[in-house]
Amino acid sequence: MDTRKIKKRGFQTPTGMRDILPEDQRYYQKIYDIVENIAKFYGFEKIDTPILEEAELFARGVGTTTDIVEKQMYTLRTKGGDWLALRPEGTAPVCRAYIQHGMQNLPQPIKLWYFAPFFRYEHSQAGRFRQFWQFGFETLGEQSAAIDAQIIQIFYNIFRELKFKDLTIEINSIGDSQCRPYFKKLLVSYFRHRESSLCSDCKRRLRANPLRILDCKEEKCQRIKSQSPQIIDHLCEECHNHFKEVLEFLDELELPYQLNPYLVRGLDYYTKTVFEVFTSSENPAAKEKASPEKPVSQEEAVQAKNALAGGGRYDALMKILGGKITPACGGAAGIERIIEVLKIKSPLAAKSNQAKIFLAQLGGLAKRKSAKLFEIFYQENIPVAESFGRDSLKAQLRIADKLGVKYSLILGQKEALDKTVIIRDMASGKQETVKMEKVAREMKRKIKK
Ligand code: HAM
After folding, report:
1. Most buried by CB count within 10 Å: which residue of 113, 228, 299, 413?
2. CA nearest to 228, candidates 270, 200, 262
3. What is the pTM of this model?
């Protein structure tokens, strides 16, 4: 550890991780409320899984040759010798929970949702954090194409409720174990003949995970990619029919989708349907950076195109993780990315103080009595503001003014001894004195008016 560096700049959050300060909490809360409501409507139940899981869960589930497992996992060895990982995503843990708790014995499908922090050791850039929040929906134990469409509809509805406009859903089918191996062969053969023109990452992908070449964002690979074979032309009958049905549902639901034959996603567990959701205000950070003198370069624009949400079907995952064959489909959205757009498009106003009453005190005894009185208001569920740290009455009333409360309660030495309280109407300046035991009831009556 470089203690000199810490001494010089003080302690900071680790790179790519952020505090969620009070002014940002309302964004998370708003998204949470919308997601929770929609989850209830569509019959999803909430699940929380641990932040740490066995690293092997992701190696097997997400895939050893994916960026997430190969480069981005935070792993640690416990004192007891277990090899754990800070979860980089939520689908493998949900499947682990499904198997561990015997959910296959319950009526199917099992529909679960989550709202939680995840961790990936990413290069720090706009929209990419090392700790980020996702909400996700997973439907386990159902193979119907109606489910794929419902998952997409859920994300679409959430973004619509957040007032996002110009939403686009990109969709593709990446086949299954029947048709994908053959397509992979075709792809490898196509790219092998053009290997010298591929970027260095894609040269590696050609051996390890050729499908990922289709997802490459490097300028260099775009042209070669654009003429490569497309999986859609090589789906087996089952995958073809499933995809056709999903698209028919989307048409019926009037969801604005675009076919993207290069969409393969960065996780290995997908079969058949994959999708991502974008808004055309994709990357506010890149847009802000752009100016008439310095427009965003094409490369920046490509890199900047961050998905708000992504997901798909993963019919083979449960078996890979040691469970029974269980068809499943789901998706997850990045909350920080949503907030970035929200802040630009429709920033939330700070919540005004709910309290209509301010409790002011003067002197040691009065301060103790007001602490007691404050608790009485808590018991009665009447919101009250206070400034117990201040001694001057003038300073306290100034705060009451700023908060815009209707009434201030004033307790001085005399009132504390007499067991009374002064009620001051802030607008008229009129004051009255009431018995302390009656003040809560009296204030309830007054603020009800
Ligand atoms: P994912 O595409 O890796 O999928 O992540 C889902 C969303 O999380 C992305 O669309 C993005 O908005 C957000 N996200 C991902 N990485 C970061 C990051 N470093 N910083 C900020 N936001 C990020 C999954 O995680 C799958 N488990 C989704 C899924 C659920 N598939 C089926 N069920």
Report:
1. 113
2. 262
3. 0.90
